[in-house]
Amino acid sequence: MDFLHSAAMGFELAFQPMNFLFCFIGVLLGTLVGVLPGLGPVAAMSLLLPVTFNIPPIAAIIVLSGIYYGSMYGGSTTSILVNIPGEAASVITCLDGYQMARQGRAGPALGIAAFGSFIAGTLSILGLMFLGPFLAAGALKFGPPEYFSVMILGMTVLTFLSSGPMWKALLMAAFGLFLSTIGMDNVSGTARLSMNIEELIDGIGLVPVVMGLFGISEVMLNVESSLKRSIVETKITHLLPNLKEWGASLGPILRGTGIGFFLGILPGAGAIISSFASYAVEKKLSRHPEKFGTGAIEGVAGPESANNAASGGAFIPLLSLGIPSNAVTALLLGALIIHGIQPGPLLISKHPEIFWGTVASMYLGNILLLVLNLPLIGIWVKVLKVPYPVLFPLILLFCLIGAYSLNSSIIDITIMNLFGLLGYFFRKLRYEAAPLVLALVLGPMMENSLRQSLLLSAGSPLIFLNRPISAVILIVAVLLLAFPLMPWFRGKRPAFGDSP
Amino acid sequence: MSQDRVSSGIWLLVSGTLALASLQYNLGTLSSPGSGFLPFLSALAMGAFSLAGFIHASVRKNGGGEGVPILKGVRWEKAFIVLASLFLYGWLLGVLGFVLCTFLFLAFLLRAVAPQKWAWVVGGSFLITAASYLVFEVLLKAQMPKGVWGF
User: Fold this and answer.
1) Domains contained in chain B, number
2) What does the alpha-carbon distance between residue A277 and residue A273 come to, in Å, rounded to a whole number?
3) Is residue B145 part of a domain?
4) Partner B contacted by A481 (CB < 8 A)
5) Which of A124, A125, A195, A232 has the fewest CB atoms within 10 Å distance of its CB?
């Protein structure tokens, strides 16, 4: 009864005209962001974060969430039509989606991507509704050692899944942790490593760092190489897949939903790994694995469902534990804190309107996306034809305005530019930025948990092993770190590209 | 020398510098960690990982990563023109104000990076500047800086 009452309250909130409008704006912008290569959901949410300061918290979270799951919808369009993924989670869709388009089957490819996304998105929200409150109740038993261990696990998972050598990912995480300590120490009141710059006393802002690492560096890389796009010039018809196509896709959609949802919950995993995992599973299960990569609809249906389900799953650790699982949810965490809402196990009981309102808006958002996206595909194709030399100054301008308007500070623009330069070299040298961002966000929470745990145990680090939940979590983290050292595992670690 | 060896060597220097910088704050004890505890610990971790990377790159057959310079074969000067314009924007924003600075920034990028026709450079920059002023300054009240001309 309580559940139904809460859900009804959520829908009441989501249907309020203002919230509905923000949901619409969020999913529309999200789709646009997903469609445009070179502008990912992290950069777009960073840009819009300052804008949400002037709107109520629930509307802010609704619009930002809408951008996130909306971008998962939109990402497939460029993968299918241009062979350039709109965002990293749609990389794998290029393999079969683009081949389908070349064979004149762009319509069913786009259609099944949209329907699969809708089904997966809706099912993952159901999972969020049931699992979120349950996990939050369990998390009330967590103390500082357990929180510290969960955060260590989150960072370990992300470094484990990063492409390239593990030392690079761990180095990035350690660097992010160091950066997170810049600014006022909450315990002693000391301003640390702020170089006498007043603005740094509050610490390095997440938004300029993310915009620099992901937005500016992306533009820098794009302008130095000619980004030629060859859009498939075919009439897009038959967006509704036929019975045969549905038959081939239903299994992949449901399996992709399960894979995406559970991988999305894991801190550090998320949309990218789930889309790759779904593709691998479908290829393994298929009677015709040789058709994968040549235009198999299963290769579009599974991954596209998985990345949408993962975006729903990622909300679970955020809303029930207060722990972000990727850079996007880290931004949402930042937005909640900026609006005076403390994320954590008490969020659902103290601010039920935030949890249930967001969940209900996600239902609406998924329906809006389905209704909007199929008829709007023609417009998205036109958007794709905007030449990059015209587009990139706009992206840069949005980054500049977004960075400045956070604190009306030029320093934030400088920080963004510096991280743009760093991000450019990171990408060139194959250092992934995602572990850095996650560590930057988790850093203050980790430091508090670590110091509290050590105070509790009178300085004994064994406290992390003496408490069963913490010990189990740490053992999993250590195993993940040890895996790449095993001879049989070397070279088998999956690589999922540089993205949150 | 390979990319990984060079980059891990640089990281080693960076981590050493950061560890030294952390030492000016109280490290505290294990039972009562001070404000320098985590910065020092994370700088040490950076040092350890970069050392591991250096060794890893040194023992590998190809020395870790390609030996090709990372800026070879690309029009890197365009990337740095973009970056320089961003720094310049930040520097001039307070002096010239949002409107003029934005117009010049857009016009410069549209002309210098992938040269567009002058009509589009001037007209496009004007239109985008006007639209962004309307959206951010007027509608969203973002309080962008005004220059000596008052806009």
Assistant:
1) 2
2) 6
3) no
4) no
5) A195
ipTM entry: 0.93
- Closest-CA distance, A22 to chain B, in angstroms, reads 15
Mean pLDDT, rounded, of chain A: 83
H/E segment holding residue A202: none
Say whether both B88 and B134 belong to one domain: yes
Q: Residue B39: which domain range?
A: 3-62
Residue B85 lies in a domain: yes
Q: Given this model, what pLDDT does residue A143 score? A: 87
Angle between helix axes A106-139 and A352-384 (nearest 10 degrees) is 160
Say whether B105 and A450 touch across the interface (CB within 8 A): no
Domain end residue (candidates: B62, B85, B111): B62
Please indicate whether, in this complex, the C-beta atoms of A400 and B90 are within 8 angstroms of each other: yes
Residue A489 is inside which H or E element, if any? none
CA distances from B80 to A211, A398, A417, A420 (A): 17, 19, 11, 11
* Cβ pair A37, A84 in contact under 8 A: yes
Strand bridging mode A191-192 / A183-184: antiparallel
Residue ranges of alpha helices (H) inside A408-456 are 410-428, 434-456
Sequence letter at residue B32? S
Domain termination site, one of B32, B62, B92: B62
Q: How far off is chain B from A178, nearest CA to CA, in Å?
A: 5
Average pLDDT, stretch A89-111? 84
A396 chain-B contacts, CB cut-off 8 A: 82, 86, 105, 109
Q: Is residue B146 part of a domain?
A: no
Task: Identify the CA nearest to A291 among candidates A248, A243, A241.
Answer: A248
Q: Does the predicted model carry a pTM greater than 0.80?
A: no
Q: Residue A191 belongs to what H/E stretch?
A: strand A191-192
